[in-house]
Specification:
- The structure is a single chain.
- This protein has 419 residues and is α+β, with helices and mostly antiparallel strands.
- The protein has helices spanning 2-12, 27-42, 60-71, 119-137, 159-170, 248-256, 267-273, 320-340, 354-360, 364-373, and strands at residues 16-22, 49-55, 75-81, 83-86, 89-91, 95-101, 106-113, 145-153, 176-181, 192-194, 202-209, 213-220, 224-225, 230-236, 239-243, 276-279, 287-290, 294-295, 301-302, 312-317, 347-353, 380-386, 389-391, 394-395, 403-405, 409-416.
- Strands 13, 14, 15, 16, 17, 18, 19 and 20 form an eight-stranded antiparallel beta sheet that branches. Strands 5-4-22-21-26-12-24 form a seven-stranded mixed beta sheet. The protein has a six-stranded mixed beta sheet with strand order 7-11-8-9-23-25.
- It is globular, with a radius of gyration of 21 Å.
- The relative contact order is 0.15.
């Protein structure tokens, strides 16, 4: 009997996650109390590293010091957030912390600064740093790497170049999930820190690996085509100026009415409900979402990343029902590897769009409850809302590439094979 209990304890320690949340007025105490709760959730296990999402008005170094006062000298990532997710609750003004422990997985963490100087090299250096650390820990067994998680300051528009830099090291279809870190609006960079280093022009990555580690990822958005396709005729970096024979603003006016105002308070609502879809290369009628961030008097539209001439775009439309169906599809993709192994995930990381939260309104609780009902009550659900997401459109089992997206919900599920 004693041996049996010992075996169960060892299995329980193989991959554990403790989570905690606090919303004190003082950022230091928000960090401290979230850490105490996460340690209590973790139990007797000693944490290897921590990941904290801190409301963007909290100074991240004060939050870091608060967490450190409770957990001691541990590898710790703290990034700004718009709003945080813990279980079935989403809250803005708080610090949410996840502590990771166990001996059946390997991890690497690294940080790069001054990403805006050359986003491609920033992504390239980040991926090489992660890979070198993990290969050292796994004695050169690169095949053990399973997923990369990345958080990057929203300080530049060349998001696809940053992702390309990572993919050229890790592989075009290697699972990479993550999000941009902003303050109040897109392209207003927030802080990304690791062990009290980092600025509002940094990127931090986590590379997870392990022979028995199970990883499932699903991504989707829920906006559906409305207008006829158009090809981008003229663009200047993140500004689309002409769509074939019409300006972007006239294209919008064609479907939404000629009285569409570019200075109206309703502009943000219009762009949230009716974004542009960019057709995926070699995949007809599949679109990733781009929200117009600004409408210009000449009819151009500004976006948060570079848009290339020759791309096919289309006016899209979103509603609550379609968004919830997309969540269900993403969740099914993320849980598929666990169904095949007849087990459940230990941890779920949600990276969801701020605009999804705004459009869902009170139904955002229904979205989180939908996820909770599909997993064990012991599965830790943790995440945040962001203006930009990295992940697949579909599931990683389908060998789909990773994309920089707006409007998406990315679900990362992590657990262990039964032994």
């Amino acid at each position: 009997m004693t041996v049996f209990k010992l075996e169960i304890k060892i299995l329980a320690m193989a991959f554990r996650v403790g989570i905690g949340s606090a919303s004190e007025d003082n950022p230091f105490f928000s960090g401290k109390f979230s850490a105490l709760k996460a340690l209590n959730s973790l139990g007797v296990d000693v944490p290897e590293f921590g990941l904290a999402f801190s409301y963007h008005e909290y100074p991240v170094y004060q939050v870091y010091d608060g967490i450190k006062s409770s957990v001691g000298e541990k590898n710790l990532i703290v990034v700004n957030s718009q709003s945080n997710i813990l279980g079935v609750v989403n809250k803005k003004r708080c610090v949410n912390l996840a502590l990771f422990a166990g001996h059946s997985f390997h991890y690497a963490i690294t940080l790069v600064n001054n990403v805006r100087n050359n986003p491609y090299l920033g992504g390239h250096h980040l991926a090489w740093g992660l890979l070198n650390i993990l290969e050292t820990k796994t004695k050169g067994k690169e095949s053990l790497k399973k997923v990369a998680i990345v958080f990057v300051s929203d300080s530049f528009i060349e998001k696809n170049e940053f992702l390309k830099g990572m993919q050229e090291v890790l592989g075009l279809k290697f699972p990479i999930v993550g999000g941009t870190i902003s303050t109040f609006t897109p392209l207003k960079p927030g802080n990304v820190t690791f062990n009290r280093e980092g600025i509002n022009d940094s990127a931090v990555g986590i590379l997870l690996g392990g022979e028995n580690l199970i990883v499932g990822i699903g991504g989707d958005h829920g906006w559906i085509p409305l207008g006829l396709p158009k090809r981008i005729k003229k663009s200047d970096k993140n500004r689309i100026q002409d769509l074939e024979d019409i300006t972007p603003l006239k294209y919008y006016s064609k479907y939404l009415g000629s009285n569409l105002s570019i200075i109206s308070d309703e502009t943000k609502t219009i762009s949230t409900i009716y974004p542009l879809g960019v057709e995926l290369e070699n995949e007809k009628d599949k679109y990733i979402i781009r929200f117009p961030r600004n409408f210009e008097p000449g009819g151009s539209m500004i976006f948060d990343c570079v848009e290339n001439e020759g791309e096919n775009v289309r006016l899209m439309m979103g509603n609550r029902e379609e968004l919830l169906q997309a969540t269900q599809r993403a969740l099914s993709k993320a849980l598929q590897p666990f169904e095949e192994e007849n087990t459940l995930p230990v941890f779920i990381l949600l990276i969801s769009a701020v605009e999804r939260k705004e459009l869902l309104g009170i139904d955002v609780s229904q979205e989180l409850s939908m996820i909770r009902k599909k997993v064990s009550e012991h599965t830790k659900i943790f995440g945040f809302y962001t203006y930009g997401q990295v992940g697949p459109l579909g599931g990683t089992q389908d060998l789909r590439p990773m994309y920089y997206q707006n409007g998406a919900i990315i679900i990362l599920a992590i657990g262990l094979r039964k032994t």
